[in-house]
Input
Amino acid sequence: MTAASDRQLTIAVAAGKGGTGKTLISTSLAQAMVRAGEAVQVLDCDVEEPNADILLHPRITGSEVVNILVPEVDMESCIHCGKCAKACEFAAIAVIGQAVVTFHDLCSGCGACAYVCPTGAINEVPLRIGQIVSGTAEGGIEFHQGRLDIGHQRAGPVTTELKRHISDEMITIIDAPPGTACPMQEAVDDSDYCILVTEPTPFGLANLREAVDTSLRLGVPCGVVVNRDRGGYEDMERYLADEELTVLMRVPERRAIAEAYSRGETLLGASDEWLGELQDMYGEVAEQVAQEAAL
Ligand code: SF4
Ligand code: SF4
Output
């Protein structure tokens, strides 16, 4: 099951809000595809609150530090022109009278301040913002997880480093951060497909609308998994039909699933009945990607 370009698919699993079962679906899909004989890797891009390890139980074998380059000002060379502060989109550097103040927790490491400084007073020095841990989970799933250090706000550089691990040789499943803000967009961007997990509530529907808009704006085709489905939520059904969204799977609200989750197990821990459904979902996704590529 390869993409049209003869490389394996990269599939993001996202949700308009936290707690909808996004990680449950991404890890279950990874396990189902490994059981289908595929090589699979999981990238946990929910770097502010990563938790795919709780369901996949990987054996961690390595880690790497993620740094960004932040400005360090040599006040001997500074002429207090203010160009650095003007160039910064994140208000991470300010010139106040004869002083230049930097706020490294706001800095994205873009380097613009050093670039515009007319006297070369700004040196760029590494600052640790997080790490990536890597290992292997059951069935040979390759596992990479980004972890943003406490006190840092810029998830983007960790996600970027994490996505460097994407291999064309394996199905890549990206567990994206919840919501539709920059961290989610950075995780989903450039994926072949985005599986959007939702739940049949007014809140779930409002978030799903935003997530669909975001995915399509990124140019990433998407389909929907309705989790904790109880049936009969007409507003959501109407929306799915009106937007012609593919419902890839419906996971019912069931005690056995909740119990498996609380034990740190995926859908396959609840019942093998999900194996075929998850593999069929992958098949549907691959077919849609192939159709898009053929357009
Ligand atoms: S590196 Fe970029 S974000 Fe950081 S202070 Fe300089 S201009 Fe601002
Ligand atoms: S751009 Fe350079 S010289 Fe001008 S205020 Fe900033 S650090 Fe000082």
